[in-house]
Every structure is written in C-alpha cells, then in structure tokens.
Amino acid sequence: MASPKEGGQPSEAPSPPAASEERCGYWALRDGPPRRREPDPSGAPQGPLPPLYPEKSAFAETAKRAVAETPPSARKVTGVIGPHHLLAADLVAMPFAYAGGGDYRRVIILSPDHGRRGKTFISVPDRDFRTALGDLRLDREAAAAVLESPWADVSGMFVQEHGIQALLPFVAERFPKAAVLPVALRSVICRDAMEDLARILLPLSGEGTLLVESTDFSHYLTEAEADIKDQESRAAILAMDPAGLSALRQPGHLDSIPALYAQLHVQRALGAEPRILAIRNSCRYAPEADGCARIEKTTSYIVAAFELPGP
Fold it and tell me: Which of 11, 138, 152, 236 has its C-alpha lying 20 to 30 A from 45's C-alpha?
C-alpha cells in the first residue's frame, strides 16, 4: 500500500510542544481572539471530500487480513490508538478490527495537523467524506460541540491530512453506519486549548462512541533509541495520567502529545482500562534482512485499546 511518507521514511513531524504547558493568554495577546469563518452566503450544500487514497483493493485486503488476524475484544472498547503511516497498514487496520465487535454510532479521530494548515489550534471539517471503502457522513452535532471552543474552527485541510485520510477507509469498512468527526490538532498547543478539547470530548464519548487517536510514535531515531522512547510512551499510556505526559517530547516520543492528552483524559474519566496490542518499528518493514541495523531514522508504532471493565 502506498505510504504518505515517501520511501518508507517518516514525514515531517510536528515541532516540540514547548508551549503546551503555558496558558493561552500569550496567543490571545499575540494573535488576537480566534477568528471564525463566515458562513457561505449561498447556503449551497457541498459534496463529500474526495479520498486522498482511492486504492480500494489495497485497503480492502488489509482490512480483511486484520479481521482474520485480530480477534475482536469481548469487552466494550471506548478508544483506540493506532498509526497513520501506511507503511504499517496492518497496524493502522488492527485497532478497528479489535474494536470491530462494537456497535458505534460515532467515531471521533484525533490527528496531528501535519501541514499546520488549520487556522486555529483545533480544526474540524464541515463536509462528509468519500473513501476507498465507502462514504462516511460527518457528525455535525459533535462538530458543533467542538466549535464551541474558542480555539477551534472549520478547516478545509482534511482532504490533505494523511493522519485522517489513512484511517477513514478502515472506519468505513468496519463501521459504515457510524458518523465520523475528524479533529486535527496543532502540535504546539496551549494548555487551555487542550483542556477545553478534553472537556468537550468527554460527553461525546463513552458507549456508542469510538475515540480514535491517530498517532505515530518515536521519530528520527535508531531502533535502539526508539525502543527506549517507546517503553516510556507505553508506561505513560498504561499509567492513564494526562499530567504525566509532561515527561514526553515531540517528536522523540510521539507526534501528538495533545491527542494523547485528550485520549487519556477521556478514558480515565470513563473508567476504561488500557491494553497494549502491538509495538513495532518501521525498520521491521524494510525488505533487507539488516534493515534495522542500517536505517538510522525510523518511526515507531504503538497500537492500544481502552476497554470498559466487565463483559
């Protein structure tokens, strides 16, 4: 399957979130209040956004293989973490297969704003999506809730955002009746915006909703260096403590601390329990036997699920 990261190498990772511990007053003073887009005066409805990846057979085969190789959870899955690097398409599909036993009416996807195309810290779309495996309707009710945040706005960037587009076909294949809400997050985001998003997402989550965190983990490291960072990220996920994420760094540990913050905040409030499904390095996909010894800049992937206690 074609990868958005040319040559199997990591794409540009977001900048370190040095400002994520600060309150938002600095940005308000520097940039002024967030500006909202004026509504289209014509009122004409717009069609679905086209797929970034239209290769139906590749996605269908990967989804089928993931279902065959990943038994669905016997518990209620409220959230998952998975990559968006299509070099590891099997891992992109894995969390959806694992949650495949659930009956979801809503799927929310948190992704980095890789191209920094959004006008605000938090971006949402205003159109439905066409994917290689079927169309998905936008959850307009959830989008309206997110837009209540002063740090959110509508953006047209989602047609190009591979952190969303790489996952949508698997959502369409597993949960064709669900409404979807993609949310793109700037990597440098102040604490007020992170907390506001987590607060808004909580009542939208729980049973009937799958909160998906589209995240690639360590970037630009050797496999040995990445393994150390991945164990630290793994520990942070299992600890379920959003405040503990201050010890992690972008892009050394992962490409979106804001997305992981929101995920852990929501899952902790729901009482969900974390489970690590897979950890793998991109060098393991190299065709050469000595790929991991030869490749100096890798990306790593962690697949995880959050499940409610009990059957």
Answer: 152
Place of tokens 């949310």: 183
Tokens 């913050």 belong to 261
Look up the pTM and report it: 0.89
Local confidence band at 222 (pLDDT 50, 70, 90 cut-offs): very high
Q: 175 φ, ψ to 5°?
A: -130, 65
Distance CA 95, CA 147 (A): 27
What residues contact 30, with CB distance under 8 A and at least 6 apart?
none
Distance CA 248, CA 196 (A): 21
Q: Which tokens sit at 112? A: 């980095």
- Crossing angle, helix 257-270 and helix 223-239, to 10 degrees? 30
Helix 89-98 crosses helix 56-69 at what angle (to 10 degrees)? 50
Using the 8-state DSSP alphabet, how is residue 49 labeled?
B
Q: According to the model, what pLDDT value does residue 23 have?
A: 59
CA end-to-end distance (rounded Å), the chain:
36
Q: How many CB atoms lie within 10 A of CB 235?
A: 11
User: Which of 188, 205, 224 lies closest to 265 in space, CA to CA?
Assistant: 205
pLDDT at 291: 85
77 residue type, one letter: V
Which pair of tokens denotes residue 90? Answer: 């099997």
* CB contact burial 262-287 (16+ within 10 A = b; e otherwise): bbbbbbbebebebbebbbbbbbebbe
The full set of domains in the chain, from first to last, is: 61-307 (3.40.830.10)
Half-sphere exposure of residue 145, counting CA atoms within 13 Å on the CB side?
Answer: 19
Q: What angle do CA 22, 24, 25 make, to 5 degrees?
A: 105
